[in-house]
Amino acid sequence: MNEPNGMTEIYGIFGDPVRHSLSPLIHNAAFKKQGINATYLPFEVKEGTLGLAFEGIRSLGIKGVNLTIPHKEAAMDFIDEVPEDVDRCVEAINTVVNRDGILYGYNTDVPGFLIALREELNFDAAGKKILVLGAGGSARSVAFGLAKTGAEIIWICNRTLERAEGLAETLNTHFPKTDLDAVGAPEELIGERIDLIVNATAAGMKVGDASPVDLNLFKHTSVYDLIYAPAETELLRQARAKGCRAANGLGMLAAQASLSFELWTGKREGVRETMLEALKTCRI
Length: 284
Ligand code: NDP
Hints:
- This protein is an alpha/beta fold.
- The protein has 8 helices and 11 strands.
């Protein structure tokens, strides 16, 4: 961590769990490399206490935070403004910028996910059939990004079906050219061509977690797992064993983080490279 002094600016991440997060590592590496007197800390914020944590941003003068599981959607209730742009209807944010006491909410997961998909899997979602696992804040960003890119069909599969139905319904109103459907279990799609499966659930975060989908049920498909710790989930292990193109969430982590960093500091040049370099130095 950079040596703090009286002028050090504070940034951080609110989440639960949050101790596994690599965001402090990569943001602190970027602050150091860019010569910015700032530090980035993990804050374990329990569900239901996000309002208090946001009061903390204001009262302590924290300059910016990221949001992770389970706060991305709830955070919409506590920010002052979402800047007018095309991604406003995602209704989930992962980045807060404190500009003179006004808290602005942004979503860098959407572009971060699309960058990772293109660079790591060479995957273009236009005209494709895609299964998204999960219906939380990240699944919302993933499905939004895929629909925006022109996917033909997006199936949203979630443990709590109503949440998947709600997400499909919301996105259908914004993207009439993409068919968005909720499914109760991946088995309902046996026989379908699926070009890409994205895991945006927490299933796989704990070592020993089962895969949220049995890949043997489907023909060849690319796989993107948003989870990056552990580096290889059971889903990714199955995908590699089948010879599928597959990637974990590290590329998205660095891409979305560098976009948040730019919103906070205005610096872009070399930031993502510094973050990726920092990720190489740590054992996940
Ligand atoms: P949310 O809390 O908003 O959503 C969690 C989702 O996971 C819900 O759909 C939930 O289902 C589902 N879920 C939780 N536990 C299980 C389980 N045991 N089995 C099946 N489904 C489960 O979290 P986020 O959307 O913010 O995060 C989801 C994942 O994405 C996390 O693993 C997170 O680390 C990762 N992530 C990675 C990023 C990156 O840059 N690589 C960026 C953002 C997130 P239900 O609705 O039924 O509760």
